[in-house]
Amino acid sequence: MLDKLHIVVGEVRSPVLTNSPSGSDEAVVFVHGNPGSGDDWVPLLEKVAAFARVIAPDMPGFGDTERRTNQDFTVPAQADHLEGIINQLGVTRAHLVLHDFGGPWGLAWAAAHPQHVASVTLIDTGINRNSHWHGFARLWRTRFVGELVQLMMSRRVTRAIIGRKNPALPENWLNQIVDHAAPWGTKRAVLQMYRSLDLAVLEGSLTGPLRDLEVPSLVVWGADDPFIPVEFAQRQLASFPGARVDIVPGTGHWPWLDAPDKVTDIVLPFLRAQFDDAPSDSAGISGRDVPTTTVGH
Asked: Are 81 and 12 in contact (CB under 8 A)?
């Protein structure tokens, strides 16, 4: 059973979904992206919670966190907020499951705290993207144009765009994602996030430290992701050379919502292997094996 805690880090309150507010110091930490919240992870959380402690926060600016006009939504600030949550919950071994902007946030934390990283799962995210920005990101990064775009993005418009670009997304999840994007505080956070981030600098600063982690790693990607094209899945091997890469056909930017059974069949064996006494390659997945690419399930 999942409960929702409220944790304050630097005077910013974050709701956190978990199955155990205390206990084991090893946990699977799920970090959402833009727009999103910890609630988006429920289809995976409920399955992983059967064998591990799980934690899924709403990150600052998103979900039900506090939103302030003077708040810092840069990658370092978000990584610091994540650190505060992890520390307060007593986690010393974190299995990161990251999506979208949760990738830069979580990986920045990982690079700064390598001794606490147990494994990494990237879902349609990463840092080795050759400075790729999708169309909306380029608009958001442009002053005045970004503000105008955000003003025009009503729920109806947002729903039409996301639904058209992600046709496999179930209706209930589409509605939830549209709701996530609606608050003006979130729109303002998005503008700051995209404008403050230099992808080339991020890649240059994190690729080496992440490669040095040498932890079990998994990359999962929606074959039809309209925002971060599927060819970027293989590029994550620059930071995680031993990662297994799985491409999920018929899915978009939120593959675990589009096809929960397919993604569960990929992610659960990987995470369960990290908690088993047997070596992880007994489950056919190891962060130190020669990387393989599996298409479809």
From this structure: yes
